[in-house]
Automatic annotation (TrEMBL):
Transmembrane segments: none annotated. It comes from the Bacteria. Signal peptide: none annotated. This is SUF system Fe-S cluster assembly protein. It holds the Pfam family FeS_assembly_P. InterPro entries: Fe-S_Maturation_MIP18 (IPR052339), FSCA_dom_sf (IPR034904), MIP18-like (IPR002744), SUF_FeS_clus_asmbl-assoc (IPR014291). Residues 12-85 form the MIP18 family-like domain.
Amino acid sequence: MSETIDTAELGEKIVNVLKTIYDPEIPVDIYELGLIYDVFVNEDNDVKILMTLTTPNCPVAETLPLEVEEKVKSLDAVKDAEVEITFDPPWTQELMSEEAKLELGML
């Protein structure tokens, strides 16, 4: 009998992976920064991540989405992963978690 993993559990594992990815200019992970808008997991364990960047001209605009995709795909339970970048709504500091604000001395 093969091990099954529900989508909620897989979602948590994906979030844990996202918390290992950092914006190179800010010492906070992309999840706590509020760059991840949504994570979708379907019954086939295909993953779609809707994310943004701090600015449209972000120096890591080419590499960061690829890093997110690769790290999420590295999870055994994930069949495929796709990252979609959006700037609607645009990222603001209000999207940051309390933890991120504290880390950056904003609280």
